[in-house]
UniProtKB/TrEMBL annotation:
SUPFAM superfamilies: MetI-like. GO terms for cellular component: plasma membrane. PROSITE patterns: ABC_TM1. Belongs to the binding-protein-dependent transport system permease family. It comes from the Bacteria. It is found in: Cell inner membrane; Cell membrane. It holds the Pfam family BPD_transp_1. The chain crosses the membrane at residues 39-57, 69-93, 113-133, 172-196, 216-233, 263-287, 307-329, 341-361, 373-396, 417-439, 471-493. CDD domains: TM_PBP2 (cd06261). Gene3D superfamilies: MetI-like. The keyword Cell membrane applies. This is ABC transporter permease subunit.
Length: 500
């Protein structure tokens, strides 16, 4: 876990303080820093503005079809940001579908979609489910007796929401907003397609074009420091709230009355923009490409590569996370706490910085591993291990240790107890953790581009290669297949227990 961060520090330190200062305080570096912070702030604000009302409507009101809307509102999470960028460029960009449709009416040019507006729109539409899922879960588990007491004392619905409900939701909102902010800071595909330079795009350009890659390592460390600052702000602002307990009162659905139609329009509009439109545009380009002679032969091999490497990463991540979770839950203490916190280092490291560190490490110290499947899977596991660890840890906390103690008292050894007792008890967490790692690995782009073996294409790299050359019809097939394959893990994670 500390290898990538340590190597970046060593690589950057080789430049000396003078060169480090020149890179850090260069006008272009400071501009990239400002642009990255601005993008993260805008995307986070928009995502929260979309997700909180949507979560409240689907969890606390009599919105017609709210269970179906809850499912549809979560599904944009399977759409990678670079696929969203592809949809925006092909629809609203120069010579895009909208421009072609309006040309007969005399419209020669549309406002540019490139830059901050396009990048913020693409990231907001496909990251708001992070906030939506956490806030909706908090609303479903929140004790409604506080709200009912406020209403009985004469407080109106809006006053009750802002004074009672919203403060209790602050930890959930901040937790989801943190994921959105980190995603926006580390995103590479959407910002590159929409020509908005951030740290991730600049690091990739430096790595590919510059003979001396030390500046790329320095920029990567700047990004790591920025991520650390975001984590520190989140820690100070998240607050604490007790959503409920065993005897929590279940909230009765709030009647929308005359607001029912606006609520339906809002919910339907978000789902249309974030799910229906991207899928519809991709289907259009796919049909157009097939009619023009495009083939899907290479897509199936890339799909197999994606499923294979994602499944491998999910399995290895679960195997690596299980002993850490057992240590943290069954043997709490300073050492186990340190090991658990150390496991989150890779997740805090943006994928582009992690990949850059492993490129340096592999090419200089482990050439036998450089551009191999083993190093790529290693990168995935380092980056996504906390996702498996969190799910397994939660499952173990719900399992009684007395069963394991009884097995030990009957003479079964530690490994036997782990295999026959602990693993079955944590089965739900193991499955959920593997599904989450599989889902995120399927969409991962920068680490795959930099660390993937030669001629090892995945659906993510297929979409990127085709889109970067403006071959939208060629990108549609792998993009749709990526969404289709990613949907079942999301169902496993969210739908099964959130639409009741």
């Amino acid at each position: 876990m500390v290898l990538p961060l340590l190597y970046l520090a060593i690589r950057a330190s080789e430049a000396g303080l003078t060169e480090i200062s020149e890179v850090v305080f260069d006008a272009s570096s400071l501009e990239v820093l400002a642009r990255s912070v601005l993008l993260a702030a805008v995307v986070t604000a928009v995502a929260v503005g979309i997700a909180v009302p949507l979560a409240w409507l689907t969890a606390r009101t009599d919105l017609p079809g709210r269970r179906v809307w809850a499912v549809l509102a979560a599904l944009p999470l399977v759409v990678p940001s670079y696929v969203g960028g592809l949809v925006l460029v092909s629809t609203l960009g120069p010579r895009g579908l909208l421009q072609g449709a309006l040309a007969p009416l005399g419209v020669e040019r549309l406002p540019s979609i490139y830059g901050l507006p396009g990048a913020a729109l693409a990231l907001s539409l496909f990251t708001y489910p992070y906030v939506f899922l956490t806030v909706r879960a908090a609303l479903r588990g929140m004790d409604s007796s506080f709200e009912e007491a406020a209403r009985s004392l004469g407080s109106g619905r809006w006053a009750t929401f802002f004074r009672i409900t919203l403060p209790q939701l602050r930890p959930a909102i901040v937790a989801g907003a943190l994921l959105v902010a980190l995603y926006a800071l580390s995103d590479f595909g959407a910002v590159s397609l929409l020509h908005y330079d951030t740290f991730s795009a600049e690091i990739y350009i430096q790595y590919k074009s510059a003979f001396d890659r030390t500046p790329a390592a320095i920029l990567a460390l700047m990004l790591v420091v920025l991520v650390a600052a975001v984590l520190a702000v989140e820690h100070r602002t998240r607050g604490r709230a007790n959503y409920g307990g065993r005897n929590s009162a279940v909230a009765r659905p709030v009647p929308l009355g005359r607001w029912r139609l606006p609520a339906l329009l809002f919910t339907g509009g978000v789902v249309s923009l974030a799910l229906v439109l991207p899928v519809g545009i991709l289907v259009y380009w796919l049909v157009r490409g097939l009619a023009a002679g495009e083939t899907l032969e290479s897509v199936w091999e890339s799909a197999w590569n994606s499923v294979f490497v994602s499944g491998l990463a999910a399995g290895v991540a679960v195997l690596a996370a299980l002993p850490v979770a057992v240590l943290a839950v069954r043997f709490p203490g300073r050492v186990s706490g340190f090991v658990e916190r150390l496991s989150y280092v890779g997740f805090a490291l943006p994928a582009i910085a992690l990949a850059l560190a492993l490129v340096f490490f592999g090419s200089n110290y482990a050439p036998a591993l450089y551009q191999t499947l083993a190093l790529l899977v290693f990168a995935y596991v380092v980056h996504f291990l906390p996702q498996a660890l969190g799910a397994i840890r939660a499952a173990l906390l719900q399992a009684r240790p007395s069963v394991e103690e009884a097995a030990r008292s009957l003479g079964r050894g530690p490994l036997g107890v782990l295999a026959t007792i602990t693993v079955p008890l944590a089965r739900n967490g193991l499955v959920a953790g593997a599904a989450l790692v599989f889902l995120t690995t399927m969409k991962e782009l920068p680490a795959t581009l930099l660390l993937g073996p030669i001629e090892f294409d995945t659906l993510a790299t297929e979409v990127w290669n085709a889109t970067s050359g403006a071959f939208f019809a060629r990108a549609a097939g792998p993009a749709l297949l990526l969404i289709l394959i990613s949907a079942p893990p999301l169902y496993l994670l969210t739908i099964r227990d959130r639409v009741k």
